[in-house]
Specification:
Number of helices: 3
Helix content: over 70%
Low-confidence stretches: none
Structural class: mainly alpha
Strand content: under 5%
Number of domains: 1
Largest sheet: none
């Protein structure tokens, strides 16, 4: 568990750096993809999923 959290933090820092740099390349996209896979295997995954589900429900309930 401690190793996966360390990898998640490292990949998160790399993803933020790449996004702020403004040049998201294929290698950067792969780092972001790995971050997603590592986040899915942590204990934060249900919280993230519930947050996205709640946001999607809120947006789908809006009427223009």
């Amino acid at each position: 568990m401690a190793i996966s959290i360390s990898v998640v933090l490292l990949l998160l820092i790399l993803a933020v750096f790449f996004m702020r740099n403004g040049s998201l390349k294929v290698s950067h996209a792969l780092v972001c993809m790995l971050l997603g896979f590592y986040l899915a295997s942590t204990s934060m995954a249900p919280t993230i999923h519930n947050g996205f589900s709640a946001t999607a429900d809120l947006v789908s309930g809006l009427r223009p």
